[in-house]
Amino acid sequence: MGVEKDIIVAIELGSSAIRGIAGRKEADGSKQILAIEQERISGIIRRGVIYNIDKTKTAIERIKERLSEKLGVNITRAYVGIAGQSVHTENNRVKRQMDQRIKVSQELVDSLMDENHNTQYNDREILEVIPQEYNLGINNDIDPVGTQTDQIEGRFMNVIARTQLQESIRRCMREAGLEVVELFTTPLVLADSLLPDTEKRSGCALIDLGAETTTVSIFTKNILRHLVTIPLGGNNITNDIAALKKVEFDEAEKLKKKYGAALIVKESSEDYKSINISNDRKVDELELKQIVSARTEEIIANIWNQIERGKWQDELLSGITLTGGGALLEGLPEAIALPKNFSTNRIKIAKDLIRSTPTSSDVNTSDTGGLNSVIALLLHGSESCAVEIKSLEEEVVEEPVSPIVETEVEVSETPELPVQEEESHEETIEEEKPKKTPKGGNLWKTLKKLVTDDE
């Protein structure tokens, strides 16, 4: 089998980095990761929305070139993930009343689905449809085909996003010289890769803590019941540190990762040390942890607000799974469990997909934070995304040149013919606005105190 038939490529457009991954499809259907490339970015993609087309296109081009060079192929297309603040679910119902009892056919169920697909949303489009249950009189059924009834109501969960989101992605990919094979809804493929069916049947929540957003996906009976993207993430914590301690963003990020904690265990300042920072200054470790925990408290309050709004807290028998770069924050499971007295045994960090996926020996697996999404996109791809470089070059077969023989040719005069005018054969060618989020219990009190103390 030629190389061009094996390689699958996926692109993830994140707020802090754009990542590209290439893998080989094996004979048994599994994937082997061959190469991973990323471009660190800032400000060009905000909460999933592409703000700078040119810079995003340039980053994608660089990833494409490096992957192509590593693998010795020409990458021409890729699978892309769609995520961000505007991605969320909306419930919809489609009802039919019959004159008499009939046996529900697949054609009837499909017609309900088609009518739901035609639902119009202002400046929004449907990415995917998740059928919930079908109401047949007083009974509910997941698969109603073959059931007798005189009325049926289909309940659907529509995953929607701003129309501009998909348009911008396709434009950036096109300008970078890549065709989009398919746009995957990132939270859904991530859940398929991380959550076993047993957990989705018994009830669970997947929390993806990204740089600028936190996505909450809730499953029961193996069906997606709720999906929402909260406009808060790890960068909010980093920005707090940078503003209050007057350091650059990159330094604040390092301080967060090394010393930050979602939960403060010891309150006494004697249990903590002073930390050296830029310009020969010091910062108190306890103050740093207070800044991190205050903002984390607000993010956690928003997570629980989404769970409780749908009264899902009692349905999560398999608990909560955390993923994304922010999930690595020290003490996060305990901090999530604390407000609702939720058992910490039911909160876990998701496995690293790079550890469970066959990987080429030259792929760097040391920095695994945040790779689960792009690997999930790769695992869901199936079509070839590259061609061998030599196949692009047309082989020119040079025909032997006959020797030129000069001969004298007698030219006879021919009468001029009238010029005939040629007939013309020309054809005429005809963001969901961020919702105001509740403040964490001690967030503003803590931040105000810290600013006052500094002054």
Describe this structure in words.
This protein is an alpha+beta fold and 455 residues long. The chain has three domains: 3-86 and 164-195 and 353-391, ATPase, nucleotide binding domain (Nucleotidyltransferase, domain 5); 88-159, Dna Ligase, domain 1 (2-Layer Sandwich), CATH 3.30.1490; 214-350 and 434-454, Nucleotidyltransferase, domain 5. The chain is built from 13 helices and 20 strands. It has helices at 53-71, 106-117, 163-175, 186-194, 197-202, 234-245, 249-259, 285-309, 332-337, 353-356, 372-380, 389-392, 443-454, and strands spanning 7-13, 17-25, 31-40, 45-46, 49-50, 73-75, 77-82, 88-103, 124-136, 139-141, 148-162, 179-185, 204-209, 214-220, 223-230, 274-277, 281-284, 320-323, 347-349, 386-388. The strands form six sheets. Strands 3-2-1-7-12 form a five-stranded mixed sheet, with helices on both faces. The protein has a five-stranded mixed sheet with strand order 15-14-13-18-19, sandwiched between helices. Strand 16 and strand 17 (281-284) form a beta hairpin. It is globular. The termini are far apart.
CATH fold-type name of the largest domain: Nucleotidyltransferase, domain 5
- Strand order in the sheet with the most strands: 3-2-1-7-12
Structural class: alpha+beta
Share in helix:
25-40%
Name the average pLDDT.
87
Low-confidence stretches: 404-440
Query: Percent of residues in beta strands?
Result: 25-35%
Biggest β-sheet strands, sense, barrel:
5 strands, mixed
CATH superfamily of the largest domain: ATPase, nucleotide binding domain
The count of DSSP E runs of length 2 or more, i.e. the number of strands, is: 20
Rounded to an integer, what's the Rg over CA atoms? Answer: 29 Å
Discrete helix count: 13
Q: Please tell me what the overall shape is.
A: globular
Task: Quickly name the level 1 CATH class of the largest domain.
Answer: Alpha Beta
Whole-number count of domains: 3
